[in-house]
Amino acid sequence: LPTVPSEQNSLFYKIYKGVCEEKSVLEAQRIYLLFRDLSFEALILTFLGTGCAVYFVAGFKVSVFVFILGLIISLLFGVAARNYSHRFVGNVFSAAT
User: Contact 50/71 with Cβ under 8 angstroms?
Assistant: First the structure.
């Protein structure tokens, strides 16, 4: 396998194009994209929710709780996205062999 990142990406994309219609690849990619998007959306909603808690509730404890809970949820979604990205790559390679 190549060691230059651009060559690795090019080779992976060629391998992926050959197996992109496999059910296992489609499912892993779908779940990876879902958790990636949920992670980002949870982060955005964390900041919006914290801002709303500060403005409407005006309680420091509530605002901090909303912020910490949102960060934890976003982090968990991010970890799930990373795990499914590894599964996606593994499924592409296993389907190609």
Answer: no
